[in-house]
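PROTEIN DATA CARD
Card holder: Carboxy-terminal processing protease
Chain length: 535
Origin: Parabacteroides distasonis
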Amino acid sequence: MKRIYLMKRIVLSLLIVLGVFTGATAQKANMDARKLQLALFAISNLYVDSTSETKLVEDAIVGMLDKLDPHSNYMDPEETKEMTEPLQGNFDGIGIQFNMLTDTLYVIQVIPGGPSEKVGLMAGDRIIQVDDTLIAGVKMKTTDIMKKLRGPKGTEVRVKVKRGKSPELMDFKIVRGKIPVYSLDAAYMADKNTGYIKLNRFAASSADEFREALEKLRKQGMKNLILDLQGNGGGYLNIAIELADEFLDKNRLIVYTKGSKQPREEANSTARGQFQEGRLVVLVDESSASASEIVSGAIQDWDRGVIVGRRTFGKGLVQKPIPLPDGSMIRLTVSRYYTPTGRCIQKPYENGKIEEYHHDLIDRYNRGELMSADSIHFPDSMKYNTLVTERTVYGGGGIMPDVFIPVDTTRYTDYHRKLVASGLVNRVSMNYLDRNRNQMMAKYPKFQQYKQDFVVGEDIMEELLKMAGDEKIEFEEEEYNRSKPLIMLQIKALIARDLYDMAQYFQIINDDNPSYQKALQIINNKETYNRLLGR
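Structure generated from the sequence above:
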């Protein structure tokens, strides 16, 4: 009978958590909870077939949330853990980044200071066995492999590893430890005056990572900064506020939130910002969302920097996490984000029409919005003025950049997409390095020498085409020729990542990033920079 009352407990506890459990509301809540309780009791005891009460309760919660906005959702205990872990800044494990290529785990990077580095595991190693379980050649799910590698701090795991051309497997005994999860992919000097920082999410450690990178770049002569938020889907609100604070003068409004049952709450900048001077360009695209939009919106509204790229995703709803007794969670939308000028970041949606909402990026592509700024139309009611130079900016969902950069549709062909999606571009890069790692390390001990001198040869490209044929990917000569320079650049960048670090990957791949190249042009031309900001 204990499970029968779960639905009632959930409804009542939610009302208490949300602070609306008073008077007539309490009476109505009791009635609604009783109604759900009786329905669950009837199904559990009278239905013709056997049922799972847990599943019924979960389906009922999901059904209620599906009628609301696109971002209110329910997560079971395992999903809750998977969602929060990447944002917490650490987890318990062995400290490697890996890729599954065909049916083999390749170590991409050994996290500095982690348990695997301490015992001598290296990038390029292939893990064949974990404890007594064979994981190579058996097509095991990545999630199942992660469960075997992860575990409580202080526990032990044994792995068998194949390294290079050696036929013998190497044995490693690794004691699991606390592993940092980094949100900063790269930080380097783009030129003698300009630093570049790439942030992939807003995690608990992001502000500290950013400040540390900023200090290192300053010591290398940085005066201006490119902040890359392309593909950054967001994260913690407080971290977005903390990051925006680094760029703004004291007492500047960064963001405010409000909802029908939530009062207006404001976040303002302090005097602690470490980059309040110097030219600033922020890169965004259609996958930049939530926290990324808070930062770019505040910078744009205060005329602090130039936004370059394409209109951002438009996720401006605030979810309140509501933990449930079994470790599951409801993330319930309680308010909306607004930029300092009053622009609502959230793009339009209809309650209950989740599929249409998530189809928006495809609709943007079909309308031509990703290729031409002229395809984006804003009514006069969506026009706002910035707070310093009174430039025109636009609301209605997402952040519209100051400088629009179209998607490159010439070299990104269907044939290229198939090669990347099948993992072949990654695999041919790893195969090459697996065969030549020692020679490459001896020939290119420093990255700058590699970047300048290494060329992806025809032997690598021929191997890629053979692998594609083996995978039954039909050869398209015209598309291959169009995409070939891009594929060669990607292979060179992937080899650099595995040979050096993730930052070196971006130093190469950004040579073909139009938004990055435009940012450099703007930031190095004071007149253009000031004109774009209305100065």
